[in-house]
Write a structure and sequence with these properties.
Number of helices: 4
CATH topology of the largest domain: Nucleotide Exchange Factor Grpe, Chain A, domain 2
Strand order of the largest sheet: 1-4-5
Helix content: 55-70%
Structural class: alpha+beta
InterPro entries: GrpE, GrpE_CC, GrpE_head
Number of strands: 6
Strand content: 15-25%
Largest sheet: 3 strands, antiparallel
CATH class of the largest domain: Mainly Beta
Low-confidence stretches: 6-11
Pfam families: GrpE
Number of domains: 2
Protein name: Protein GrpE
Keywords: Chaperone, Coiled coil, Cytoplasm, Stress response
Oligomer: single chain
CATH architecture of the largest domain: Roll
GO molecular function, one term: unfolded protein binding
Length: 189
């Protein structure tokens, strides 16, 4: 009996030892699974964010393709507009012999410009405006006392914007301050 009494206390201790080992293993396994779950959730969130970024970039690319698909075609048509404008500048509105031709050119130019405007192609005609290197290309500088320095005096060729993006810069002459005359001999003496 004494042996049985000695064994009874050992049985609960043995059961406790058996229970503790699987419990610790179970807790460690749960912790490992929770870490794997957190890692999987993090990867899932990252993949969803990447997918959303790819979708957004693709939408932006499609939008840009729609907005600027006409860029090359518009660039090829601008010399036609320039030629019509030059023809009108060089022809006299008072000459009866070419009056009908001039009216036809004016109507053609107006129709052409209206069509370009409909496709968000706008002209840059900066005569008298301050020089803007983002939209203007300075072809020459000229001294002037009539306007402030760095203003556009003359426009050789209009520039154009397509949907707000520069298609062709305006070619201009820019004013500069008059150079001071060297002192005369009388002033030096």
């Amino acid at each position: 009996m004494a042996d049985e009494q000695n064994q009874e206390p050992q049985i609960p201790e043995a059961e406790a030892a058996l229970d503790a080992t699987p419990g610790d293993e179970l807790a460690a396994r749960v912790q490992a699974l929770e870490e794997q779950l957190a890692t999987a959730q993090d990867q899932s969130l990252r993949m969803a964010a990447d997918l959303q970024n790819v979708r957004r970039r693709a939408e932006q690319d499609v939008e840009k393709a729609h907005k600027f698909a006409l860029e090359k075609f518009a660039n090829d048509l601008l010399p036609v507009v320039d030629s019509l404008e030059r023809g009108l500048e060089l022809s006299s509105p008072d000459d009866e012999a070419i009056k009908a031709v001039r009216e036809g050119m004016e109507l053609t130019l107006k129709l052409f410009l209206d069509t370009l405007k409909r496709y968000q192609l706008e002209a840059i005609d900066p005569h008298g405006a301050p020089f803007n290197p983002e939209h203007h290309q300075a072809m020459a500088m000229q001294e002037s006392t009539n306007v402030e320095p760095n203003s556009v005096l003359k426009v050789f060729q209009k520039g154009y914007l397509l949907n707000g993006r520069l298609l062709r810069p305006a070619m201009v002459v820019v004013s500069k301050a008059p150079a001071e005359a060297p002192p005369s001999i009388d002033e030096q003496a």
